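not sure who needs this but someone in the group chat was asking about Sugar-binding protein from Streptomyces badius so here u go. i didnt clean anything up, its just raw.
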Amino acid sequence: MPIARAAKRATARLGAVVLAGALLAACGSSDSSDSSDGAGGKVTLNVDLFGSFGFKEAGLYEEYQKLNPNITIKQSDTQDEADYWKSLQTRLAGGGGLADVQGVEVGRIASVTQQQSDKFQDLKEFGADKLKGEFAEAKWSAATTKDGKILGLGTDVGPEAMCYRTDLFKEAGLPTDREELAKKWATWDGYLELGKEYKKKAPAKSAWLDSVGSLYGIMIGQEEERYYDASGELIYDKNPAVKEAWDTSVEAAEAGLSAKLDQWSPQWNQAFAAGSFATIPCPAWMLGYIKGQAGDGGQGKWDIAKLPGGAGNWGGSYLSIPRAAKHKEEAYKLIEWLTAPEQQAKVFQKQGNFPSSTGAIEKIADAKDEYFSGAPIGQIFGDAAKEAPVQVLGVHDQNVMQQITNALSEVERKGTSSEKAWGTAKKGVDNVIG
């Protein structure tokens, strides 16, 4: 998720059923002497991920193991992507402790292709180049090096919407119809104004949104250029889009609209069920996370509306194979199957992770989610995916994002001034990227 996830993300993958058969055929070449763990050619594939990719929840591992009785899949998870990435960097540097499959968040993929291509397997050696026409150029090219190495296959993208609690809206005297709300908060100014109305009659211990960090993240996801320009120059400190997202987030904090919850913290997780906030900017991958945290008691209390300010993308991920992986050929067969249209559609139907495959997108176009009051999620997120800008990615995108959201947390939790907090963010960026 990931994010854990977020976001996060339209992209494309065509073709479908042939991949289910292709997974059964041998492809590529690797050292067969290193392909089995024990007698009978049994292989254990270790998959290391962050957030919620939804593979296990959608039953895909179980399905794959039935199709391939010689394969056992073991997944490990780290909830916070920043912690996951830090650990992965340590293991890549040492060359040990790596899984057969490693997840890579879209904000890190430029680092992989531009700075760590020697650490990851070129999937072209296993025939991945034949899939190029099945992905949109933006999704495909982001994981391809300048010299043509393919270092990851795309899983989901993160088209954005706004999730909200209809029961809390009713208590505060606000409308609950998703179409009406989309009109009222067509702009971010409108969203903040509605938040101020909510605050006047809000249920006890309930804020308008979870954190200003999530507000900032969803706003910056609406921009083509964020932290880097197309030439690779770092521009975050002079980009008017970053300043607008920062200023809007600061305004929300100073107006007391935030529950002041750090995303992915235990307190934030508990708040979904407790009703501690009425709205949360939600990329598609957030839907499964909300269900997991709010539980059965949240069903029918949530709904989804179009995002203020236009379409955007937050997050999305890739599956990559380290060069030091023990079972590269088997790992490739697995990730090709997991990212095929039919499997992506299943993950969306179970978890809400929006597919990067056009074949899967067609399958889920009419999908609705009863947990979210029957919201037409296929249409809402499908439209957002089509309209979202193709984002410029830089090698330290995720690091810059983290420093800015950390600084915004100081504004909402400690009352730090906007100017001082921005100075802290800039120092943090300088320290992280050197």
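also Residues 1-35 have pLDDT under 50 and may be disordered. if thats useful
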